[in-house]
Amino acid sequence: MMNKTTIRTRVLQAVVAVVAVVAAAPGFVQAQGRLRVVTTLPDLRSIAEMIGGDRVDAFAIATGFQNPHFVDPKPSYIRRLASADMFITVGLDLESGWVQPLINSARNRRILVGGEGYVDASVGVPLLQQPASASREQGDIHIYGNPHYWLDPVRGKVIALNIYESLIRLRPSDKDYFAGNLQQFNDSIDESLASWMTLIAPYAGAKIVAYHNEWPYFEERFGMNIVDFLEPKPGIPPSPSQLAKVIHLMQSEGIRIIITSPYFKKDAAELVARKADAVVVTLATSVGATDGIDTYLDLFRYNVSALVAAFEQTGYKRQTSP
Amino acid sequence: MNNLRRRTGSILVSFVVTSTSIFAQGVDSTATDSLLIRDLERELANTVISPAPTSGARPPRNLMNPEISVIGDFRAGYSSTGPRNVDAEMHEVETALRSAVDPYARADVFVAIHGEDGEFEFELEEAYLTSLSLPFQLQLKAGKFRSGFGKINRLHPHVLPYVDLPFAYRNFFGSDGLNDQGLSLSWLVPNPWFFQDLTIEVTRGPGENESFMGHESNRLLYVSRLKNFWELNPNATVELGLSGAVGPNEFGRTTLLGGLDVTYIWKPLQFNVYRSLTLQAEGVFSRQDSPTRVVRTWGGYALAQYRFARRWLTTMRVDVSDTPADPDWNERGFSVTAGWLLTEFQKIEIGLQTREANEMDSSVQAVVRAVFAIGSHGAHEY
Q1: Residues forming beta bridges with residue A194, ordered by sequence position
Q2: Which of A121, A221, A268, B186 is deepest in the core (most CB within 10 A)?
Q3: pLDDT tens across B126-146, in order?
């Protein structure tokens, strides 16, 4: 016969055991299986999958057709982050409105800034448009430089290197595997880039107009020349005076292409296109922007062919160099 | 040893060279120049490169400063009751200071200056430490904080899409909501199907409050909330919250509160800055024990909020509420608010509200408020 105290102790032990098992379950599972990687953007997910191969399970919080500045920090993402081994962010201040509340609530030290699983993909990336001074008078400017660097495939190699270094930190035993994947990634970027450059080379230096200032890296790599934006200042919706200015500029310079992104309303761009006899091209800002863009390489394949098609459609004449 | 010999040698050589150069001085300028160059070259060869003095190049000390932002909430309005019908006030200026304390915790401090009837008073709105690394998916908060009861008590007034708190909150917790000092422990329930968070707070009991009051004895205020959250599809979510609170009231007896809140948000991923719809309803149920009787009261609201353009947001709210001490005093109200969100950092709202108490004491209010935020970029709400 057990006395009351023994029963109470037993019950207490059972409760503690159940709670401990339930609470420790996620940690136990991940130690055995694949590394759980959570990324902010699908582009980072795609690169993580290419480097991590079958050793990672990657999830992206944002979708490819979403404005990366304005992703909603839904509590459901906290669950993913709580059990993540690795968290990859574009960094700078691209996701400043939504990453902080998520990782602060995740109760996961591995993925906090400075944690072993925290990856800031921007480390070592040469940045453009670093402001000498910052004031919101200039609109939503980015204090560290333009954060849309993943739109240059060569900078994508730096992202891949950052991810690789974190992977070998977490799984040193798989170093050779990750190194092989990194090499393969870099090679395919180099190969593809050569073919993309051949396609777009005839249009080098072509003047175009963009909706938002998110293309400087793409522009630099592929030799485009973005001369103005529909937004009067970054993040400020198009105003009539800005649109009028852009229309005049396009008419006088013979600019006939406006590039925009999936998450902006098209009305302003289409209005300008009608007035200036131009075409609106919605380029992909991220993997998954439209069907068929499933990997980081697809992103550039799609954008280059969309631009080339637009140049052909508008009958762009190659400017003869002096 | 070798090193020492070499160094002695070089000192000797430079001594000889220097003395020669002294002798040579004034004799032949080209000779001087060449000697100078030789000296310089020797110096250069011998100089150990040490880090340059960094006094000017050091990053500013304020790199370690917390993130600072200041939020202003200015209001002007008309009210059909009271001796003064038209008024304007700088309702609140809130300074937020937020930072990691160390690798284990972060701290958030909000100090506010409130304007009321032309006077300004300072208030420590919130100040708390939050753990970042407790085991078992726990998170502990210690300090002074807005209580987690219900859906909106945690939110600061300037982020709410309407000018005034719902009647139920104001009547049961006072015009600033339930805000107390103590501990809050939140547990991310390891639920594999949906997000679930259980929060339990133990606080000292607020100083002035319609439902609870700090007590001289060891009686404390206990608050809990179970938050459940589902993603119905990428564009729509539902949140269901169950809250409870128990603690001493102004009579030294016990008040029991129960709360239920439901929020549905439709926000298309692709165009989330242009369109969204929020439907929200909340009820607070009170059982207040006083020396003479037990009073059962309740209050609630339902609202619909629609964003129909990037810069425009409208909110309609219906309010019904008893007062916690008196089930016979019942207020009803209806309000419409239109918000113009110029940028993420500035909004102007116009609110119209009718209020009727016991079908007699009725009033109409119109308020314009301008909210601005300067400083570091705050987090978005969901």
Answers
A1: none
A2: A121
A3: 999 999 889 999 999 999 999
